């Protein structure tokens, strides 16, 4: 089955709602995200999901980074609006360290977990989504 849902290109990242129902944010290699970039990601998310609860697979590019201000904003209730759970997929050590820092010190308002493997990240999100369905 072909994915007919559009991919939104915000320059530093690609944003899409996949057939499995997750929001995928793929940061291009070597990009540094600032607050305006995070706001653009949120606008793209809203275009794809509206107010619908969602899960997010955030795939960090190789040697990508995020400013301190953007990290604080990205962990806000505004940025997490509608989020059931989020994963950060980081393959390089520097990005994994940044992801761990984000989770431990910025304390996002929804469950957020770091993975080196996208497949494992999606499995965890599926479990989180299933858990929520079982509670309702």
Structure description:
- This protein has 136 residues and is of the alpha/beta class.
- It has a single domain, classed as STAS domain (Transcription Regulator spoIIAA).
- It is 40% helix and 25% strand.
- It is built from four helices and eight strands, in the order E-E-E-E-H-E-E-H-E-H-E-H.
- The chain has a six-stranded mixed β-sheet with strand order 1-2-3-5-7-8, sandwiched between helices. Strands 4-6 form a two-stranded parallel ribbon.
- The longest helix is centred in the C-terminal third of the chain and has 18 residues, at 118-135.
- The radius of gyration is 14 Å and the shape is globular.
- 31% of the residues are buried.
- The model has no long low-confidence stretch (mean pLDDT 92).
Please render the helix and strand layout as text:
Blueprint: E1 7-9, E2 13-17, E3 23-27, E4 32-33, H1 35-49, E5 54-59, E6 65-66, H2 68-74, E7 83-89, H3 93-106, E8 112-115, H4 118-135
Parallel strand pairs: 3-5, 4-6, 5-7, 7-8
Antiparallel strand pairs: 1-2, 2-3
């Amino acid at each position: 089955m072909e994915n007919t849902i559009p991919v939104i290109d915000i320059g530093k990242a690609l944003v899409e709602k996949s057939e499995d129902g997750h929001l995928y944010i793929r940061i291009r290699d070597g990009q540094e995200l600032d607050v305006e970039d995070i706001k653009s990601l949120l606008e793209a998310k809203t275009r794809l999901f509206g107010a619908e609860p969602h899960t997010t697979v955030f795939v960090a590019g190789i040697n990508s980074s995020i400013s301190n201000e953007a990290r604080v904003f990205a962990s806000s209730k505004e940025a997490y609006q509608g989020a059931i759970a989020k994963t950060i997929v980081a393959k390089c050590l520097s990005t994994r360290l940044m992801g761990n820092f984000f989770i431990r010190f910025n304390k996002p308002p929804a469950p957020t977990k770091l993975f080196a493997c996208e497949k494992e990240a999606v499995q965890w999100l599926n479990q989180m989504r299933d858990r929520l369905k079982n509670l309702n």
